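#lab-general

N.A. 3:47 PM
ok so I finally got the sequence cleaned up, no stray characters, all 160 residues accounted for. can someone with queue access submit it? mine expired

B.Y. 3:52 PM
send it over

N.A. 3:53 PM
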Amino acid sequence: MAAWKRPRLLAGLLGFASAVCLATAFWFQHVAGLEPCSLCIDQRWAHGASIAVAAVSVVLMTPGRAAVLLAVLALAFLAGTAIAAWHVMVEWHWVASPGCSTPEFGEMSIDSFLSIEVVPCDEVVWSMAGVSMAGWNAIVSLMLAAVTITGCLASLRGRR
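B.Y. 4:20 PM
back already:
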């Protein structure tokens, strides 16, 4: 039986896929030494939201709620896709992202201000096949959204 005909399983698998994406980002930071910019962090929050929605979906999933829960999960993936696509546009210098490389000063001392190492959002620090990490995240997030939407539509058809 296909996973999209079993919405609880589908939500669990999609949450796991998002967790793998998030773990990969942390691996790049803590093992490979690539510090994230502020847009990278925003993309992580989107995956965190997707994981949370998937976990809630697994717990609360019933045939009557499947379409709604999967639709909310699809929205979380689409939000992640939008953030990642925005980051790609910043990397390609198609748009400027205000505050992307400006630190927040707050109660900062002169010494701490001078030691800040800001990671700019418009520099590609890693790519594969000419696609940046943000680009790959946009592609994967869009694919996860498409699978989620397919499952949502399948659950709607199953209720007829």
